[in-house]
Design goal:
heterodimer, A: mainly alpha, two-stranded antiparallel sheet, 15 helices, B: about 240 residues, alpha/beta, Rossmann fold, six-stranded mixed sheet, four-stranded antiparallel sheet, 10 strands
Chain lengths: ~300, ~240
């Protein structure tokens, strides 16, 4: 299927999702749906680096928080619309992604992962000590009740924004997959030395992957202050973002754009249901149990059952 | 045929800590030549290949390929210039099919150098797979291949980059008599039909002697002999390096 036709299908799917949410006509549906959509975009973004090139990034909270705190700064200084904030958050995170990548991509395997984790700790320390964005006390964001021109609740607007971002990230991830860039990413995952010997500029490609992956995560983080209305470093840099975002592609399958979506829908929905019916404390337990089950039963994720 | 050598190596030196892997290596390779490179284990053959191809950085000396200094150039840039290699142990891209394995050098080395669209890539991949007798397995993964097929894939991938100089690093290790002959015939054909300069690194003397027009011997990181194969293998220091004095 051509990329343009695929994107059209994605838009149709996104519109159907919105229509379904409207039919339910319950504000909580948007709150819960936003989280699932957020994880679809996050898992897809993570998979561009982690799944396609094989570099496991644990610094996900840092990229989300960069996007979120960019919005806090912009909210305090300007009156920009959310979509522009998302773009700026994405650019900031993308640039930090490229910078971090340049410093850490000479490391491989677990060494790279630990370096990204350390980067998240450094960022959190910086934000905790930055009074302008609230420091350790956190920042309050008063969001408007409705959105001008559209006339819908702000939470509906956030839901729509996240739907749009899902279309963008999945569209890009799918376009990369069978492109020259995607083949280059796959060679990095399989054997970097052989990739270089085949003419693949591995460092440049890894920087593109970290930039794209980090940028999309920043875009996901940008609306977060408006969603939670109170953002503090402990929640913005929460490790549960990292655990969930990595678990979802692993459960769904890392070799294709579809894997992260399946994982995010399955795990994200289960977590939301557990939060309402049992307790939010069960979320991480569910992730842990699911990961163990899938590592044993489906090492290549759900899509591994269907595509050999 | 131009008189200038395609590869000029001068004063090449490489150390690993206190260990001298290569010292003052001088080597010229003519265009269209078939050069054999031999030496006992640990003599620095693979280190030399790695320095030529940019996998390792040489600390001293220089490498000039087709009139261009390669010093400081990354491995992928050298491949794009036309310097291709195979690995001692085959390193296929495990999650890609055989055809996709060959697609990579075409996309990243040939098209970057010459430009070109994607229409003829499939045809080129299949032609290369046919050349090494793997066309029927184009859609299979490398894990399904036998040892000799893996080595043929390695050669085909190096050839996909359309090199002017091919370095085959022990492409025949562990193969049977007949399989060695198959690979040798393939290499000679590439050299004679396409004019590709080939450096063959090999332990199998029968193969080296029948393939090479010139033979170079490395011992403990130094070049100790360079000349006609039959003469070189009779040299006292070469015999001593292999059999002891």
């Amino acid at each position: 299927m051509k990329n343009s036709i695929f994107v059209l299908w994605l838009i149709v799917a996104a519109l159907l999702t919105y229509v379904c949410a409207r039919l339910v006509d319950n504000a909580y549906c948007y709150f819960a749906g936003y989280v699932v959509l957020q994880y679809i975009a996050l898992a897809t973004a993570w998979n561009i680096l982690g799944g396609y090139t094989g570099y496991v990034n644990f610094g996900i909270p840092a990229f989300i928080a960069l996007g979120a705190y960019s919005s806090v700064v912009l909210h305090k200084l300007t009156n920009l619309p959310l979509i522009v904030m998302m773009l700026i958050g994405g650019i900031v995170s993308g640039l930090v992604g490229v910078g971090t990548g340049y410093l850490t991509l000479r490391l491989r395997g677990t060494f790279f992962s630990i370096a990204t984790l350390a980067m998240a700790v450094v960022m959190q320390t910086l934000v905790t000590n930055w009074a302008f964005v609230g420091g350790s006390r956190g920042a309050y964001i008063i969001r408007p009740a409705t959105v001008p021109y559209l006339g819908i609740d702000y939470i509906q607007y956030l839901f729509l924004m996240m739907l749009g971002l899902c279309v963008l990230t999945v569209g890009v991830a799918r376009a990369i997959e069978k492109s020259r860039l995607g083949y280059g990413f796959a060679t990095i995952r399989d054997d970097e030395l052989a990739a270089e010997a085949s003419g693949v500029p591995t460092l440049r490609l890894k920087l593109i992957a970290t930039g794209l992956s980090g940028g999309f995560m920043g875009m996901v983080g940008a609306p977060l202050p408006y969603y939670v209305t109170y953002l503090d470093p402990a929640s913005a840099f929460s490790l549960s973002y990292a655990v969930n975002t990595i678990a979802m592609p692993l459960i769904g399958g890392t070799s294709s754009w579809l894997g992260p979506i399946l994982g995010a829908i399955l795990l994200g929905t289960l977590q939301q249901v557990a939060t309402v019916t049992i307790s939010s404390a069960w979320s991480l337990l569910i992730v842990g149990v699911m990961l163990v089950v899938f590592v044993v039963a489906a090492p290549k994720g759900i899509i591994g059952w269907f595509w050999k | 045929m131009s008189a200038a050598p395609i590869l000029q190596v001068s004063d090449l030196g490489k150390r690993f800590g206190g260990f001298v892997a290569l010292a003052d290596v001088e080597l010229d390779v003519g265009r269209g030549e078939r050069l054999g490179l031999i030496g006992p284990n640990g003599s620095g053959k693979s280190t030399l290949v790695n320095c030529l191809c940019g996998t390792l950085r040489n600390e001293s000396g220089s490498v000039i390929f087709d009139g261009r200094a390669l010093d400081g150039m990354k491995a992928h840039q050298r491949t794009r210039l036309g310097l291709s290699r195979t690995f001692q142990l085959p390193r296929p891209f495990g999650t890609l099919t055989l055809a996709e394995n060959l697609r990579i050098p075409i996309l990243y080395a040939v098209h970057t150098r010459l430009g070109g669209g994607g229409a003829d890539i499939d045809r080129r991949c299949m032609a290369l797979l046919e050349m090494v007798g793997l066309a029927e397995k184009a859609a299979r993964l490398p894990k399904d291949l036998t040892q000799i097929e893996m080595r043929k894939l390695e050669l085909a991938r190096a050839m996909a980059a359309e090199p002017r100089l091919l370095i085959a690093d022990e492409a025949m290790a562990g193969l049977s008599h007949q399989e060695v002959d198959d690979i040798l015939a393939l290499l000679v054909r590439l050299n004679e039909e396409q004019g590709i300069t080939i450096i063959l690194i090999e332990h199998i003397m029968r193969a080296v002697l029948s393939f090479s027009q010139r033979l170079v011997v490395l011992v403990a990181g130094r070049k100790i002999a360079d000349g006609a194969p039959r003469d070189v293998v009779r040299q006292d220091d070469v015999v001593a390096a292999y059999l002891g004095s």
